[in-house]
């Protein structure tokens, strides 16, 4: 029996939405890592109370109940995995994995059972549906009726907003079944009510997102933002991460709170709450609790009376209540000595902070990118000026982020940082020892290995090296880089103040006149004209044979439909990842079979290319002959027109030269060439040429 079981592409049901991720079962417990947010749920083996296996919409599902009443649902299993899971639960958790199917009769009457944080509507012994009471935002009662309202789900296209239950009256005296039903719901529901006094209040804090000044009231279970126009209540359970970031001017501090789900203002969603503090602001804080309660609840992390900088007090209180670490910039230092880089994202300017496990950009819009979700980064030349560059990041989900207008001086520092973190840099490929080594189930774990992506990168690297070798052999020049300080100033421009002085001095000094043309010729010689692009690169011949596919691509084309049938509804990105896993796990013998097919395809391609090259050379020779013939026609017409004007001048030298010696070869070649030219002229012009005049005929007879 294996000590661990791992499952990819598992979906966790949270507040009505399905979040995909990875599930691992071990002796210590159950760990689920959310692929979207990176959040990790850890269930200890000692906390598990019950395990249920049932058929759901996405195949089969696993429902886990803990001793403290929490319920966790995971879908996406195959039916064949039941035996493996059942044996694992018996061996390591001492639990029987029970099979319970949902009732599909379609009846709308039954019994309601409250268990932990679940409301289960049952018909007989089978559940019809279950409602996590943490999804309930409001519960109201009427005559023999209870209405449940739910939190809006932003990730789903259609959300269930309300359910009404009819509760028939009972004969029992002194017990109202409607009120009893409502109290059971409210005891577990996520209904935020600002009852009691706040632990502490921070007045008029500057908030960048959402913009404005807010009073922050700290309650035991939630955070209340009170502004002039809007109020927000943020449960501490929705806080993912906390960041404390110094501003580049060293006089202000950002305190960033990452939220999931986000707070809403109309149709706008705020995934980050960003507060801006001045380092000079101090505060004396007194908690609205006695010292014993403070010591018992916070265990020395807070005291009843505290004083210090405002940003330190806010971050300290939030860390104690949310019970999460505060992330600060690591050892990165930019060119100016700051721990951030000034850049622009989309239309706004902001600051990019390289952290120990990711990047965060503040503030409009805020962006947090973990290292484990980055596919590659790229350094690109700035589009508007040569004094800046762009930093591009592409995630494994295909999302692209471009941070532009970064000063050129920051390039070395940022490149060294990316290199030290072993991130893949585009066009360079993965070098030896550059593979990431993140813990798969840590807070910033690495996503599954994509064999297809690695293979494509390797092939691209080989093609790039071949292209570089061919360009070096052809002797083509590369583009010269623009160096403003290294230009030759010998040639004066029209607007140059020295232009008139150089021209006037050149008139009076003959020696300088002799030297100047040589100097100008030297400049012209150094600046060679750029060679034209070869004709072969102008356009690709559609009749040319197509390049052969690799063994992996041949296998993928043959297996794509099978993968789709095994994983209904799989996306293109996930299909590529799954194919990479299957190819990596394939035996050597099977791979050799596809390698042979790829080799056969390569031979066929080479044979087709030889035939295509021969046909192409024949076409080239015919086109050259045709071109030469056209040139001769054009040249013959030009000679005919010039013959009449030169005839008188050519007669007298011919008579004087008649007595001079001529070799036989010279005479015969001259006569043959003149005869050929005359013959071509007569053929070309024919009847179009005018009849000879009497003077011409007389001179010809002479």
Features:
eight-stranded mixed sheet, 33% helix, single chain, 702 residues, PH-domain like, disordered C terminus, 30% strand, alpha+beta
Helix content: 25-40%
Query: In angstroms, what separates the terminal alpha carbons?
Result: 118 Å
Enumerate the spans where pLDDT stays under 50 for 5 or more consecutive residues: 429-437, 444-452, 473-526, 531-538, 645-660, 662-702
Largest sheet: 8 strands, mixed
Return the CATH architecture of the domain at 196-327: Roll
**Which term fits the overall shape?**
globular
- State the strand order across the main sheet: 4-3-2-1-7-6-5-8
The SS-based structural class is alpha+beta
| Rg measurement, Å | 41 Å
Number of continuous helical runs: 13
Number of strands: 31
- CATH class group of the domain at 196-327: Mainly Beta
Mean pLDDT: 75
User: What portion of residues belong to β-strands?
Assistant: 25-35%
CATH level 3 topology of the domain at 196-327: PH-domain like
Characterization of the model:
The protein is globular and about 120 Å long. Strands 4-3-2-1-7-6-5-8 form an 8-stranded mixed beta sheet. It has an 8-stranded mixed beta sheet with strand order 18-17-16-15-21-20-19-24, with helices on one face. Strands 28-27-26-25-31-30-29 form a 7-stranded antiparallel beta sheet, with helices on one face. Among the domains are: 4-99, Pleckstrin-homology domain (PH domain)/Phosphotyrosine-binding domain (PTB) (PH-domain like), CATH 2.30.29; 111-192, Roll (PH-domain like); 196-327, PH-domain like (Roll); 341-421, Pleckstrin-homology domain (PH domain)/Phosphotyrosine-binding domain (PTB) (PH-domain like), CATH 2.30.29.30. Helices cover 33% and strands 30% of the residues. 16% of the residues are buried. It starts with a strand and ends with a helix. The protein contains 13 helices and 31 strands. Helix 9 (551-566) crosses helix 10, helix 9 (551-566) packs across helix 11 (588-656) and helix 11 packs across helix 12. Mean pLDDT is 75; it is low at 429-437, 444-452, 473-526, 531-538, 645-660 and 662-702. It is α+β, with helices and mostly antiparallel strands and 702 residues long.
């Amino acid at each position: 029996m294996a000590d661990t079981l791992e499952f990819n592409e598992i979906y966790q049901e949270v507040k009505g939405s399905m979040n995909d991720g990875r599930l691992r079962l071990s002796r210590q417990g159950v760990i689920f890592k959310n692929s979207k947010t990176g959040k990790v749920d850890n269930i200890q083996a000692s906390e598990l109370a019950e395990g249920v296996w049932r058929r759901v919409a996405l195949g089969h599902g696993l429902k886990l109940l803990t001793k403290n009443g929490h319920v966790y649902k995971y879908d996406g299993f195959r039916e064949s995995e039941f035996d493996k899971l059942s044996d694992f639960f018996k061996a390591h958790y001492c639990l029987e994995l029970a099979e319970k199917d949902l009732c599909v009769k379609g009846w709308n009457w039954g019994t309601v059972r409250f268990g932990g944080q679940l409301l289960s509507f049952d018909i007989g012994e089978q559940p019809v549906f279950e409602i996590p009471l943490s999804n309930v935002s409001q519960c109201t009662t009427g005559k023999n009726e209870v209405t449940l309202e739910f939190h809006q789900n932003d990730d789903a296209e259609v959300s269930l907003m309300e359910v009404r239950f009819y509760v028939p009256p009972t004969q029992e005296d002194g017990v109202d079944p409607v009120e009893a039903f409502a109290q059971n719901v409210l005891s577990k529901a996520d209904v935020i009510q600002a009852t009691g006094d706040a632990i502490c209040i921070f007045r008029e804090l500057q908030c960048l997102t959402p913009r404005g000044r807010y009073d922050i009231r700290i309650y035991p279970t939630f955070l209340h933002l009170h502004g002039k126009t809007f109020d927000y209540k943020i449960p501490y359970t929705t806080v993912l991460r906390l960041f404390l970031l110094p501003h580049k001017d060293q006089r202000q501090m950002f305190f960033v709170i990452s939220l999931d789900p986000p707070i809403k203002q109309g149709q706008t969603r705020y995934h980050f709450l960003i507060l801006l503090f001045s380092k000079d602001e101090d505060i004396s804080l007194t908690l609205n609790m006695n010292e014993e309660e403070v010591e018992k609840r916070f265990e020395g992390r807070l005291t009843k009376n505290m004083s210090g900088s405002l940003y330190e007090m806010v971050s300290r209180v939030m860390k104690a209540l949310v019970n999460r670490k505060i992330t600060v910039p690591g050892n990165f230092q930019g060119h100016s000595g700051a721990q951030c880089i000034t850049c622009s994202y989309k239309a706004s300017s902001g600051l990019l902070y390289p952290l120990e496990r990711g990047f965060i950009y503040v503030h409009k819009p805020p962006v947090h990118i973990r290292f484990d979700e980055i596919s590659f980064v790229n350094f690109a030349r700035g589009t508007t000026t040569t004094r800046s560059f762009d930093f591009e990041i592409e995630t494994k989900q295909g999302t692209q982020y471009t941070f532009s207008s970064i000063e050129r001086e920051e390039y070395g520092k940022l490149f060294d940082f990316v290199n030290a973190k072993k991130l893949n840099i585009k066009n360079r490929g993965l070098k030896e020892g550059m593979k990431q080594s993140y813990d798969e189930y840590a807070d910033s774990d690495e996503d599954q290995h994509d064999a297809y992506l690695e293979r494509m990168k390797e092939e691209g690297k080989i093609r790039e090296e071949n292209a570089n070798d061919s360009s070096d052999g052809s002797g083509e020049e590369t583009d010269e880089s623009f160096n403003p300080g290294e230009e030759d100033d010998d040639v004066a421009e029209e607007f140059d103040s020295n232009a008139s002085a150089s021209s006037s001095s050149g008139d009076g000094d003959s020696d300088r006149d002799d030297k100047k043309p040589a100097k100008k010729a030297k400049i012209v010689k150094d600046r060679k004209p750029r060679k034209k692009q070869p004709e072969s690169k102008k356009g690709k011949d559609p009749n040319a044979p197509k390049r052969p596919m690799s063994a992996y691509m041949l296998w993928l084309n043959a297996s794509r439909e099978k993968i789709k049938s095994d994983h209904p509804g799989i996306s293109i990105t996930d299909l590529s990842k799954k194919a990479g896993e299957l190819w990596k796990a394939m035996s050597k013998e099977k791979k050799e079979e596809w390698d042979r097919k790829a080799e056969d395809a390569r031979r066929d391609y080479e044979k087709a290319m030889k035939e295509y090259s021969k046909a192409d050379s024949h076409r080239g020779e015919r086109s050259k002959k045709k071109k030469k013939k056209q040139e001769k026609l054009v040249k013959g017409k030009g000679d005919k027109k010039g013959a009449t004007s030169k005839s008188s001048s050519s007669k007298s030298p011919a008579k004087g030269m008649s007595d001079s010696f001529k070799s036989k070869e010279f005479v015969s070649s001259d006569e043959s060439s003149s005869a050929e030219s005359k013959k071509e002229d007569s053929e070309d012009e024919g009847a179009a040429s005018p009849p000879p005049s009497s003077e011409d005929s007389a001179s010809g007879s002479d």
